[in-house]
Amino acid sequence: MWPVVILSHDLQWRVTSLPNRPRFPGFRNRNQGTLLNTPSKMYRLHMLLLYFLPWLELAMGRNDTGHISSELFNSLEELSRIVDISYCVSTTGIQEPFQCLSHCAEFPNLELVTTWSTGILLSDSCGYIAVSHSPGPKRIIAAFRGTYSIANTIIDLSAVPQSYVPYFGDGDQREERLTANPGPSTPRCENCTVHAGFLKSWINTRSVVLPHLLEARDKHPDYEVTLVGHSLGGAVAALAGLEMRLKGWNPEVTTFGEPMVGNADFAGFLDSQFELGNYTKPTANPEARRFRRVTHIDDPVPLLPLREWGYAPHSGEVYISNPDLSPTIEDVHLCVGNEDPQCIAGSDTPSTLSNMLQDANIPLNIFNSHPDPCPESEDVLVIHPGEQDVLAKQKPANCVSRDETRALYARRWSWSLIPARYRLWELFYAHRDYFWRIGLCVPGGDPTG
């Protein structure tokens, strides 16, 4: 029998077989001699189909990326409204029992526990903790707010990475369950680095978040811990979720527009702890992932910081392929691995983003460049209009007065250098459009969304 592949009228690949005695013109029976030198047109067509099959299937988008269920779609849409409420914290506020100018009225079963806001710039963290009671899902929710400025986001994301050690202690001995000091059985993250600003933000936040979550878990032991974050808040939620996972809390983490948090070793470590990507169990339901990293077409932030800067994405991606609001269930896809070519990694956004940074004179090899050896001190740095500070490694070179213990320094680029053709406002909307237009604390959410 001769296996051949046939493209049917409905564009579906069919595998069939031909008899040992092919009836195509131009062939002889095998027992009668060799094949003639001039094969038939049908034979040539079959050979071409076999040769081009991998490329044709890729072009037709036939991989394991699939649509999601209505249950997961509804869950993600609900969580996008929950994280949108976090933008009220630093503006009009959230009041007890759970009232605000945004979507609060849509969640009558939510009870506010606390809100927080710490620091500025890269160390800024803002959000709230609430408890969801029955008849809805019984959850303890921590929502991490994102950033208001896409321009600041892109520049802020060029901060240098620093070593990541799971279960770092914070000196708080009031409760053993909060100290998180490493023990002999604690998983090690070998050669892991993470974004310095994200880690600093989580360190500044954990002393506020963990005690409230611990108290809520003690009070409601059958409630699930749910973390949700948008933009830079998604990166902080990822670090928080990883630490809680290592504590044995088994949180559910959902991020929208999360940037890359650390290097490839860190991404692999996170995948291993949440059983994502290559660490997924063969019998696992992909929709039952404990970490969902939602991305949106044209959103540049999930592609930042750049790989050239030493960063890599982790798995668990859920991709929204429709650039407009509001997406349908057919627009939302479960992705395979950490860089599915049918998801954000395969869009036009990476090349656009790279060109934009190069045109703004921001080197792709930023950590191999040679900046001013004696930069201004972070403590006395004056922020000039139209410019944004960036953290990067200090170069001792000819600088004799520099503090050798300081790991970061401020570097500055002007956003006036970015060409208008990149339409930053469109990137801004793409970064905010996750089921709803996230980021404005107004009645019912953003009216333009």
Explain what the structure shows.
Helices cover 26% and strands 19% of the residues. With 449 residues, it is of the alpha/beta class. It folds into two domains: 2-59, no CATH class; 68-359 and 421-437, Rossmann fold, CATH 3.40.50. The chain has a nine-stranded mixed sheet with strand order 3-13-12-11-10-9-6-5-4, with helices on both faces. A two-stranded antiparallel ribbon has the order 1-2. Strand 16 (433-434) and strand 17 (436-437) form a beta hairpin. The model is unreliable at 1-38, 48-63, 168-175 and 367-422 (pLDDT under 50).
Q: Which tags fit this structure?
A:
449 residues; alpha/beta; 9-stranded mixed β-sheet; 19% strand
Q: Concise description?
A:
By secondary structure, this protein is an alpha/beta fold. It has helices at about 40-60, 70-85, 150-155, 175-180, 195-220, 230-245, 265-275, 350-360, 425-430; strands spanning about 1-5, 15-20, 65, 110-120, 125-130, 140-145, 160-165, 195, 225-230, 250-255, 290-295, 315-320, 330-335, 385-395, 410-415, 435, 435.
State the distance separating the first and last CA atoms.
59 Å
In CATH terms, the superfamily of the largest domain is Alpha/Beta hydrolase fold, catalytic domain
What's the order of the H and E elements? EEHEHEEEHEHEHEHEHEEEHEEHEE
Number of helices: 9
Share in β-strands: 15-25%
Mean of residue pLDDT values = 73
User: Mind telling me which CATH architecture of the largest domain this is?
Assistant: 3-Layer(aba) Sandwich
**Rg over alpha carbons:** 26 Å
